Amino acid sequence: AALAPLALTAVGLQLDFKPEPGLTRLLSLGLGYKLVLAPAGALLLCLGLNLPCELTQVCVLEAGMGPMITAALMASASGLHPSLAARMVGVGVPLSLLSVPLWWGGLQLI
Q1: Which of 46, 85, 87, 98 lies at a CB distance of 3.0 to 4.6 Å from 56, suitable for a disulfide?
Q2: How many C-beta atoms surround the C-beta of residue 95 within 10 A?
Q3: Is the model's pTM score more than 0.85?
Q4: Could you give the 3-state DSSP secondary structure of residue 21?
């Protein structure tokens, strides 16, 4: 029960908003993929497969969810650019609170 707050605290402590050379580009690429390209690809795939509307909505919204805390913890533990992993979650989750409703609104037009 204490694992989720502990994980969020661990990532939060790694957050540092000082500019780091090259990090803005990597962050933009990662979040652009996660919040825009992945849901767009899921939408195109679902429409191409002629899936039911509800299933399409679920697939697109799941693809557009913010980055996972577990992935950031595993990347940090493996030494895979811990500051980028923390920023992906720290910036991506609040941005997904804006992007997911936009995707939902767009899906209502289909």
Answers
A1: 46
A2: 14
A3: no
A4: coil
Q: Which residue has the tokens 């997911």?
A: 100
With 70 as the cut, is the pLDDT of residue 14 above it? no
**Between the CA of residue 53 and those of 40, 42, 56, 90, 105, what are the distances in Å?**
15, 13, 5, 32, 14
Other Cβ atoms closer than 10 A to 32: 11
Q: Where are the beta strands (DSSP E) in the chain?
A: none
DSSP, residue by residue, 69-97? HHHHHHHHHTTS-HHHHHHHHHHHHHHHH
In this predicted model, what pLDDT tens digit does every residue of 55-65 receive, in sequence order?
A: 999 999 999 99
- Closest-CA residue to 61 (of 30, 87, 35): 35
Instruction: For helices 3-14 and 69-77, give the axis angle rounded to 10 degrees.
Output: 60
